[in-house]
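Good morning C.,

I know you're traveling, so I'll keep this short. The sequence:
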Amino acid sequence: MALKIRKLVSYVEEVRIEGGKDAARPVTTVLVAAVVKNPWAGRDFVEDLQPEIRAYASDLGALIVEKLTATIGGADKIEAYGKAAVVGGAGEIEHASALIHTLRFGNHYREAVNAKSYLSFTNKRGGQNTSIQVPMMHKDDEGQRSHYITAEFAISDAPLDDEIVIVLGAADGGRVHPRIGNRYLDLEAIAAEKAAQQG
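The tokens, ready to paste straight into the viewer:
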């Protein structure tokens, strides 16, 4: 039996000005969500979630990745990426986690963009029109703070109590005016300070 997908939702944002200053180039963020029927809804406590994970997660990942990469203009445009899931009130947070925290789901995205970093994420319970946050980082370098981005949106009629919203996010650049350095510069500065104190 196929996973019931009520609808797909896309959110696109293009940042042109930040802090009153024009961006060197606009940065586009895309979120694609699938609103799906929770396959564990109405079944009391389900001990083994693996049958549904095996049945649905891979196809769901492939579908969302295809829509996401098409919307942003190709997988080669993606620099930052992330994921999120929100389960409706009748479900467990474990149900949301189950469909996104599996290589069957995430590998479709990692392979499409040749990523080295893990997919940052949120998973929570919420009702219709709940705020959905999708944290992202550079697909190849977790320490590159310029690409620490959180995109936020809401779907007015989702999730229903027996649904899960599954989301992938992408950006074709980092924040438009990054100026806080990266973790490698911090490590160098801290090491230099320690050496100076010991010297």
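Safe travels,
E.
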